[in-house]
Amino acid sequence: MNRRTVLGSALIGAAASAAGAASAQPAARTAARAAGRTGPLNLITDVEGIKIGQAHDAGVRTGVTVILAEKPAVAAVDVRGGGPAGRETDVLKPENLVQEVDAIVLSGGSVYGLAAGDGVAAWMGMRGRGYGMGGAPGVPPSPIVPAACLYDLANGGNKKWEMDPPYRGLAVAALEAAGDRFDLGTAGAGYGASAGALKGGIGSASAVMASGWTVGAIVAVNSVGSVVAPGGKSFWAAPYEIGDEFGGLGSSGLHASAEDWGPAKFRPQPRENTTLACIATDVALTRVECQRLAIMAQDGLARAIRPAHAPYDGDTLFCLSTGKKVIDDPAMRQIAVAQLGNVAADVLARAIARGVYHAANYEGQTGQTWREL
To answer: In this structure, are residues 187 and 316 in contact, taking their beta carbons and an 8 Å threshold?
Structure first.
């Protein structure tokens, strides 16, 4: 059987399975949803080789999240928003030299937050991490640290930092705190974020596939669009929820029209919104395959936020492969990438909802949280 036949048969089988699921009774559909399996922590750190560090400044109302690869990881990026703020995203293009990164930074602070990448690079370079051309004596390595920032400059707090924005120091503090467990909601890059008309924040989730592969996501939700349907508390991501990880309300409250998004931001301003995310998997992927995974995973934003990828947003999604597990059958490789991409989109949708579900107001904030709806 040639590769095209194998792929075609697999797709036909998948379509047949989907058709069968669509005709199932509601109870059966609920059972199937409940059968989804998260990793032990239901965090991106369930992916072997990934650690997360976070730090925030309550006085400035901002923060930084660092995704730390224990060893250099193959990476890609997909930018869909109309107003991004990024660092070293061009280095991730498939045609360029360096195929791996040492860390990814998500930060508040808009353009000022890009300094967080400098802090991570200095911290890692001091420890010998980074790309080197032979390691000549006295020549430091060059850590590869792409970054993306969201806009939280208009949320109050002391932004009179003049020549000393806090982001470099926050990045170092985040690295020093890196580990498997981390806070969701009002933390890290999501500390000063808002999701539509609600308090935004940091979300994360994971999924363990039937193959044993793990996919995880982390996201800082600062969107123009709404994460909940009009007239209630139901998350747009409800169909993808595993257990009651963001309230367990189900999808019965979901309804939509093209011009009714739910509690989105009123009169959003350009460059004041962005959802930043990183997908990670333990499956060994090439740079091009990581790029496809990033592209597919962007669908998670559309599943969880209405609208997404708007002119006002700077939506940016990174993808990391830690390479711990190998796809054994070369003939099924592209099917495997398609499966990973679809799971990644679902995991990201869940992470977005979890970020808003756990978000609480910081001291002095009077905006609405999800729990107050």
So the answer is: no
In this predicted structure, what is the pLDDT of residue 269? Answer: 55
How many C-beta atoms lie closer than 10 Å to residue 100's C-beta?
17
Question: Token pair of 113, please?
Answer: 């937050």
Dihedral pair phi/psi, residue 55, rounded to 5°? -150, 155
318: phi then psi, degrees, rounded to nearest 5: -100, 155
Convert the pLDDT of each residue in 27-48 to its tens digit: 333 333 445 799 999 999 999 9
Q: What is the mean pLDDT of residues 6-11?
A: 40
CA distance 82 to 85: 10
Spatial CA neighbour of 41 closest among 284, 217, 222: 217
* 318 in Cβ contact with 208 (< 8 Å): no
**Strand pairing of 62-79 and 201-208?**
unpaired
Which tokens is 204 given? Answer: 């994360």
pLDDT at 265: 61
Q: Phi/psi of residue 308, each to 5°? A: -120, 160
C-alpha 314/C-alpha 83 separation (Å) is 4
Two tokens, residue 190 = 């999501």
DSSP conformation class of 212: S
Structure tokens at 367: 């905006």
Q: Which of 233-247, 287-301, 302-316, 327-341 has the lowest mean pLDDT?
A: 302-316
For residues 330-358, b (16+ Cβ closer than 10 Å) or e, as one string?
Answer: eebbbbbbbbbbbbbbbbbbbbbbbbbbb
Amino acid of residue 370? W
CA triplet 5, 324, 90: central angle to 5 degrees?
A: 85
Q: How confident is the model at residue 259 (pLDDT cuts 50, 70, 90)?
A: low
Mean of the pLDDT values across residues 97-118? 95
Residue located via tokens 């999604």? 317
Asked if pLDDT for residue 8 goes beyond 50, the answer is no
Q: Alpha-carbon distance 313 to 325, whole Å?
A: 35
